Amino acid sequence: MTPQNFFDLVLAPSASTLPLDNSLESRVMLMAIAGQESAWTDRIQIGGPARGYWQFDMTAILDLLADPSLGPGLQASCAVWDIPSDPTTLYQALAWHDPIAYEAARRLLLADPAPLPAVGDETGALACYLKNWNPGDPKPATWPAIYAQAVAVVK
């Protein structure tokens, strides 16, 4: 999927379904993170266990559901979409239900008390991604190009 298609078909429609802060900064961050994690293409991690364009593993799902500030809202959204919010079902749903995957990713960023980096702050955005996603294989060399694409598409 091209970055523009991802934005038009996944990110923008998913953001419109949520009563969360969907600022320009958050959309750029989530666009860039999905590009970094899945190349806007892989709903299931190649050679790994993660699910969704934002590549959540089971540990991340368990942490989200257990967090008193994140879990209840995510569980309420699951109920609206008629998705059982048990960890196994939610984990599988993240690969195929874009609004729930988007919401999980957005809630993960909202859990960080630090403000999101300004649009164009590539270094700050990389630091935010590394802090909140804690990727096993971060590949910082690919971030600048992916971030630039995210900014161009979202703006």
SSE order and pairing:
Layout: H1 3-16, H2 24-38, H3 58-66, H4 71-80, H5 87-96, H6 98-110, H7 122-133, H8 143-154
Please explain how this structure is put together.
The chain is mainly α. The chain contains eight helices and no strands. The chain has one domain. Helix 1 (about 5-15) packs across helix 2, helix 3 (about 60-65) packs across helix 5 and helix 5 (about 85-95) packs across helix 6. It is globular. The mean pLDDT is about 95.
SS strand fraction: under 5%
Q: With helices defined by DSSP (H or I, 4 residues minimum), what is the helix count?
A: 8
What number is the mean pLDDT?
95
The termini sit apart by 19 Å
The class by helix and strand makeup works out as mainly alpha
Task: Evaluate the radius of gyration.
Answer: 14 Å
Q: How is the main sheet built?
A: none
Assign an overall shape. globular
Low-confidence stretches: none
Into which percent range does the helicity of residues fall? 55-70%
**Number of discrete domains:** 1
Helix and strand element order: HHHHHHHH
User: What is the count of β-strands?
Assistant: 0
